[in-house]
Design brief:
The relative contact order is 0.05. Helix 5 runs antiparallel to helix 6 (270-299) and helix 6 (270-299) crosses helix 10 (417-428). The radius of gyration is 52 Å and the shape is rod-shaped. The protein has ten helices and 14 strands. The two termini are 44 Å apart. The strands form four sheets. It has a five-stranded antiparallel beta sheet. Strands 9-11-12-14-13 form a five-stranded mixed beta sheet. A two-stranded antiparallel sheet has the order 1-2. The chain has 452 residues and is an alpha+beta fold.
């Protein structure tokens, strides 16, 4: 909604800016015209009819003369001087149809700006009335008058009228902005609903009909995709649950019979070794099924974190001790637990963190069947608890690292379920997990210290 309000505000401001721009341009054009022609007239020299009239002088024999530098012909086509009786005392360049005495009504008529279509200007001097004319069609003059009551009324209402005009402009801008904002507001609400995963049905009309149609189509596609994803996830969940349930009983029988066979055969016999291999592989199958269930639950937030205060030193010692009890002689594990890392307390799910550490330790054994050295090191780095699990074996295969960096997007990549589960457990606790080769396989888990 803030976006729509901002758009309406910008539209209103833009409308005012356009009005102001138009008025400014008009004023500039008028001013430019006035300045241009004013400067042109100034360059040519301003010549008034009054200056012309007072320049007359009368000689002793009754003739009229003008100063030789007056150059009135540049500004007027002809001129004549009438006495009080309408007789022509002096004239120059006077058209023949105008060369006659004038009566008072005729003088009154042409004093209103025109004499037989000639624009004229008149001025009274000491000798009579000077009439100066310009060529026909060279000048337009208006006969304009106004009653003072009307003039004063107009002047007194100019300010309120200007305010009324501004109010009307504002009202029109607000109306246009509101009408334009209503479909935008609906679009904004539709986008908000779309972001929340809700179904959108907007009216496909008006100026935003095309956008509304696209949003409706997008909402329909997203709903279809969500339904497909839900069906796929439900199918996957049912399959995993069914496999886990169906395999539990036969796997328990295999492990039980394997344990019995291990006890029945002599220690160095081939049959006992095969029975021990059956037990070992059955345990791996059981662990894989558990990892598959757990990674699915973590991926869809179906596994609640049972957080409790955990002293990391004690937990790591227990994990390493339990792991070493099942190791063969060609493996050795070193635990480096300096203070204060050994006394650090985290609010975490102890079972899940133990599972993550076990997966890393078992990964080193699984990929180094001929034996290797494993180092577990903990420390505090930048206020976070950092756990490293390294070995000096063959290291991670490049396809495994590449698939881990691509979040498991390669379907042909080697099996990384255990390592992916480690990353999911650490991420669920707000941490980060990284895997790399450094003289062997290396994993680094960084967890936030939430208490301690």
């Amino acid at each position: 909604m803030k976006t729509v309000a901002r758009m309406v505000r910008r539209c209103i401001l833009a409308a005012f800016a356009v009005v102001a721009l138009v008025l400014t341009v008009n004023a500039a054009l008028l001013l430019g015209i006035v300045v241009h022609f004013g400067s042109k007239n100034q360059q040519e020299g301003y010549f008034s009819v009054g200056r012309f009239a007072i320049a007359f002088t009368q000689t002793a024999d009754g003739d009229f003369t003008l100063p030789p530098d007056l150059e009135w012909q540049k500004h007027f086509a002809w001129a004549m001087l009438l006495d009080d009786g309408g007789e022509i005392l002096w004239s120059e360049n006077l058209p023949s149809e105008l060369n006659h005495p004038y009566t008072v009504p005729e003088v009154a008529a042409f004093s209103r700006w025109y004499l037989k279509d000639y624009p004229v200007m008149v001025y009274r001097n000491d000798y009579g009335l000077l009439v100066a004319g310009k060529p026909i069609g060279s000048l337009t003059r208006f006969d304009f008058y106004m009653d003072n009551d009307i003039l004063y009324a107009l002047l007194s209402t100019f300010g309120p009228l200007l305010l009324l005009d501004l109010g009307l402009v504002l009202a029109v801008c607000l109306l246009l902005g509101w009408r334009g904002a209503r479909p935008l507001r609906e679009l904004a609400e539709g986008i908000g609903m779309l972001a929340e995963g809700k179904e959108v049905h907007l009216k496909e009309s008006g100026a935003t009909a095309e956008l509304a149609e696209k949003l409706n189509q997008t909402s329909s596609h997203l709903q279809e995709q969500n339904e497909l994803i839900q069906r796929r996830d439900m199918t996957r969940a049912n399959w995993i649950a069914g496999v886990s349930h169906d395999i539990r009983t036969p796997l328990a029988l295999i492990m039980g019979y394997g344990e019995q066979l291990t006890q029945q055969f002599p220690t160095d016999s081939e049959a006992r070794k095969k029975a021990a291999a059956i037990c070992s592989q059955s345990k791996k199958i059981k662990a894989l099924i558990e990892d598959l269930n757990l990674t699915f639950k973590l991926q869809y937030n179906a596994q609640p974190l049972r957080r409790s205060p955990i002293r990391m030193g004690a937990m790591l010692r227990r994990c390493v001790a339990d792991f070493c009890d099942s190791l063969e002689e060609n493996y050795n594990v070193d635990l480096l637990l300096p203070e204060p890392a050994g006394q650090t307390i985290l609010e975490a799910d102890a079972e899940l963190l133990t599972r993550a550490v076990d997966n890393l330790l078992n990964n080193s054994v699984r990929h180094n069947p001929s034996g290797c050295g494993i180092t577990v090191r903990a420390g505090i780095v930048d206020g976070r608890f950092v756990l490293e699990v390294r070995d000096n074996g063959a290291g991670y295969p490049e396809p495994v690292l590449r698939n881990l960096s691509d979040s498991g997007s390669d379907p042909n990549a080697p099996h990384i379920l255990g390592l992916r589960l480690v990353r999911q457990i650490v991420t669920a606790h707000g941490g980060q997990a990284s895997f790399f080769n450094d003289g062997g396989a290396a994993a680094e888990l960084s967890l936030p210290i939430q208490c301690g």
